[in-house]
Amino acid sequence: MKPEDVMPAFGRRPGPERQTPGTSAPVPTPVPGGPLAPGAAVVLFLAFALAYFLSALVRAITATLSPTLSVELSLNASDLGLLAGGYFFGFALTQLPLGSWLDRHGPRKVILAFLSVAVLGCVAFAMASSFAGLLAARVLTGMGVSACLMAPLTGYRRWLKPATQLRANSWMLMTGSLGMVAATLPVQWLMPLTGWRGLFWALAALIALSMVAIAAAVPAWRTPDRAPGSEAAPTTAPSKGYGLIWRHPYFRQMLPIGFVNYGGMVAVQTLWAGPWMVNVAGYSAQQAAAGLFGINLSMLTAFWLWGLINPRLARRGLAPERLIAWGLPLSFVVLASIVWLGESAGWLLWALFCVSSTFVALSQPAVALALPAEAAGRALSAYNLAIFAGVFVVQWGIGLLIDALALLGWGALAQYRGAVAIFGLCGVLAYLSFLRAYRQRGRTQ
């Protein structure tokens, strides 16, 4: 099977089409700056992966630091949820302008500008002396790292072949999981040496280093009307807004599971698995860090395996929506087991929940492939906005539910079980909405 044949396997044709002489099958119209040579593609991936590794470390570090920050700043559950969610709130704020800027200016310029803000955010967090200061710095950091996945995925849409894009996407997520692994036991080990403020000074320096790597490795961006050797501008100007994205039926089909299920998986992985282990399962701070290490190592392995098998699944015509429909219900079974077992549910079950939720991660590259290449930045950023808005809502929402149930007189175990059960119910409803749209689209095609 030819690389271009993978496109229809993922449900939609990605853009304007032309007929290849001597064949009847449509193939995507070429875009300027086509696939890179393998060596250049590897260097490109590594430069982007370093920045994404650091962004994931910054994202997940609050789960490990939550016992220390709670004691030092007297934070309750809703404060902790808001502090962790502040990162995702800042992240979500930038997504719509980010998509337009990526399509217009390209990944290199955009990610370098955004990472400069991330450096300032880490410095501000290290210097903050109040909860308000920490929250503001967290929002600023979220804004700064918000291009660390969207920029590479936008570039991959143009610089890599379709099946390779699916592999690169999974391995970028694997790199993010590696960053989350680094945010667990390694952070716990460094805390006595540097303190949490010293950790954020070090993160600011490492993000600045990643900017140097990106500046050296990422190629320039050429828009279609500036393509080398082009004789004239395109006859029709591509849409610059988000109407094309929001109206697209494939995007709307994936929206509920992106918001609730994908967002919920990240919310659990980056925050609530830690407090559950401490407050429900009775783990010490060191044991909880070890549990988070195991969860994130499991996620790293899962995304590595997805990267290996995704091209083969594509060649067999297995669309991601079909895989999601089959696989995502496993996560509901695991979550129900966690609620049922309560204090007996430790890190292993939470790792199984996160791994079984990774089916929903297939939706991200599928959305990019479903829309034209010149709209990839906007498609990815709009979908990412839905995901990280979901992370913010779930992280803060679970904290609010825990505090609300406490006011009703529920015990600590019942508070957490009730909050997680309500989250699980929302996940089932989102999945059913996706399934209904998926089946309707299948009947009309």
UniProtKB/TrEMBL annotation:
The chain crosses the membrane at residues 40-60, 110-129, 135-156, 168-187, 199-221, 259-278, 290-311, 323-341, 347-371, 383-410, 416-435. It is found in: Cell membrane. The lineage of its organism: Bacteria, Pseudomonadati, Pseudomonadota, Betaproteobacteria, Burkholderiales. Keywords: Cell membrane, Membrane, Transmembrane, Transmembrane helix. This is MFS family arabinose efflux permease. Residues 1-31 are annotated as: Disordered. PROSITE patterns: MFS. InterPro entries: MFS (IPR011701), MFS_dom (IPR020846), MFS_Efflux_Transporters (IPR050189), MFS_trans_sf (IPR036259). Residues 44-445 form the Major facilitator superfamily (MFS) profile domain. It is a multi-pass membrane protein.
